[in-house]
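[agent] plan:
  1. take the single chain provided in the ticket
  2. run structure prediction with default settings
  3. attach structure tokens to the ticket
  4. add a short note for the reviewer (M.T.)
[agent] executing step 1
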Amino acid sequence: MADREFDLVLMGATGFTGQLVAEYLLERYGAGRDLRWALAGRNRDKLESVRKDLGADASDLPLIEADSFDRASLDAMAKRARVVLTTVGPYALYGEELVAACASNGTDYCDLSGEVPFMHRMIDAHGDAARASGARIVHCCGFDSIPSDLGVMVLQDEAMRRFGKPLERVGLRVKAAKGGLSGGTFASMLNIVESARADDDVARVVKNPYALCPPEHRKGPRQPYVNGPKFDEELDCWMAPFIMAAINTRVVHRANALREHAYGKDFRYDEAVLTGTGVGGRVKATMLSLGMGAFALGSALKPTRGLLKKLVLPRPGEGPDAEQREAGFFNIVIHGRTSDGEALRVRVRGDRDPGYGSTSKMIGESAVCLARDIDRERTPGGFWTPSTALGEALRTRLAEHAGVTFDLEDVPQG
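[agent] step 2 finished; step 3 output follows
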């Protein structure tokens, strides 16, 4: 791996999110000064345009032509890189050949996939190849699902230090956020809905909270799910469904399985959005729940799904301008209790909008962390989550460079 030409290749550099990642890497690491990296995509002219738009400092960045459906070009690219970072989604449509190329060529890989059926299929289809070649494959390196996965890891590790046992019941609550989800995220969600409607096997994967766990761990205790307005006794606040919960919870359960159930075999986990206290909080939780239900119903029906795509949802490649990204943020609380009632919380904050500003920094640092910080003896080839592959090394990078922090908070006991 040390002999490879590039530390990192950014696949999808001509897309909206890909360009944001390129801007971040250039600002943080320069063009070959501190990091050997290249821009990749299927269209040479568009790659040259992106490089030009990045400015004079990017003039020496190498360009690589690679097509998501041309396996030979993907193999050639993978063999030149220690890590391939890809923003080309929906991954179910465009991602499988690249995962296969990285898994077979011993190339580390990270993406922004929040597509549970795709990840389930990749784990089963290419897990053996990744273990044999030494490739570390890490999905979900953006807002879905780093705050959840890394946040629960921080919380549970501290619980073991303080209490000598894990937190049996954990909940993630989005306290505040500004900024929307990306058009690519919505495109991925709609593609999952279409696939689940057409294939009963996909529908079963979507419904299973343990779908991303290793095959021998795909069953477990019944999991809680916030599917309507509920009251959180821990935080004394009303809450409503969180649109990313169906993705993040699966990643957290995979992390628990990969850590040999360090969170406990009876671990229960859910996610929700806080809506406030009193009558106002309850009304807001009810309205948000109804909106989520309407979106789910509209997504499930073909005519309304088409209207959502055409008239309502942002398209892949569309996103907020720089001012809007910088004005965004997120503030998340993750809380839990042991079986004996000891309590602990962690606060997760990001200084940019979740879907673009923070996500582009999170995946950039994840890729660099994978290339530079993670020992292969500790983390061999296979499919990992951000916390199980990158752990505290990523937490440090995010705090120092990406404006994403994980801070423990004391909770009165008793």
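[agent] step 4 note for reviewer: The first helix runs from residue 16 to 29.
[agent] ticket updated
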